[in-house]
Amino acid sequence: MSMTNAQTAAFQNAAGFSAQSSSTLWLSLVLVLTLLWCTWVMWTAYRGWAAGSVRFGAFGGSAARVLLALLVLMFFTLS
To answer: Among the four residues 13, 24, 40, 48, which has the most C-beta atoms within 10 Å?
Structure first.
């Protein structure tokens, strides 16, 4: 559902920026936080694998799940 011209103008006048800029900001924030979370998960899995407390198969499973979650999120947010 898109905004009408009157709604777009009212948003722009009240906020000082366009609705598209706001949408871009929030989508970028979500993707950056997701990338940080993926980095944290992979770093933690790597440290566990390097210390010997996580098997290589579990490390690969973590990598696959993180990649799948990232791809699904990017598909829905960027399409």
So the answer is: 48
What pTM value is reported for the model?
0.79
> What gap in Å lies between CA 5 and CA 9, rounded to an integer?
6
End-to-end C-alpha distance for the chain, whole angstroms:
15
Secondary element (H or E) of residue 34: helix 19-51
DSSP-assigned letter for residue 1: -
- B/e letters for 8-46, b = 16+ CB within 10 Å, e = fewer, are eeeeeeeeeeeeeeeeeeeeeeeeeebeeebeeeeeebe
Summarised one tens digit per residue, pLDDT across range 12-33 is: 999 999 998 999 999 999 999 9
Q: What pLDDT sits at residue 31?
A: 93
